[in-house]
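Researcher: Good morning. I'm working through a list of sequences from a screen, and I'd like to move beyond sequence-only analysis. For each chain I'm collecting a predicted structure so we can compare shapes side by side. This is the next one on the list. No need for commentary yet; just the structure.
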Amino acid sequence: MSHQPAHPASRTLPLAGGNAAASADVGVVLVAGGSGTRTASSELKQFRWVAGKPMLLHSVQRFQARPDVAMVVCVLPRSHVGDPPPWLFQSDLERLLISVGGPTRQASVENGLQDLPAGLGIVVVHDAARPLVSDATIDGVIAAARGGRGAVAALPVVDTLKEVGEDGRIVRTVERTRLWRAQTPQAFPRDMLARAHDAANRDKVVATDDAALCERLGIPVVVVRGSERAMKITDESDFARADALAGLSD
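Model: Good morning. Structure tokens for this chain:
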């Protein structure tokens, strides 16, 4: 199907050319286009070091270590597309593309999706802010996508949840039995994800993850058990926590 980009200004810069193995049919979109304004450093969050290497490099190398991955597209802020950080070249350049981030996460994913080479039937979307994702989780979401469904790494909610009004008063306790905390990676058949983004653009819908775009169309999406190690680094204190978790097994 023809998939029209929401942001025509998006461009992909190949760091090198090459052909992936014929058996590799997975494309990965690494979302690293945010500004990271909730950390104290002036350096972009996704470029800061955590657990022994730059945050983004963790995910790039993790996915490129997989024989089923044909290409990884890193979606970077526009200001860094022409001059990526030098440590990014510590990866398989024949399976690396750089794409331009959009004004929203959703637009950034779409730009990365547009820039993946044709012929890749499975797309994995992963947030660079989750550098410690495990191979087992990646295996799980890709397996579900191969079965024709969308898949989301997630963890069941274990805390008691309270709905609170604007005045700070508790309105009710929310039943948590069927609630899960969504993570990434998320994996989809490529045509499914493209259709969901097309429909969102047409209907002017913005969602916080790609699974929600599929859900609104009635497309089946399942959860795959994630890991506490795949925490999202958001605040300054999260860097120390990620360093501690990096030493633990899944």
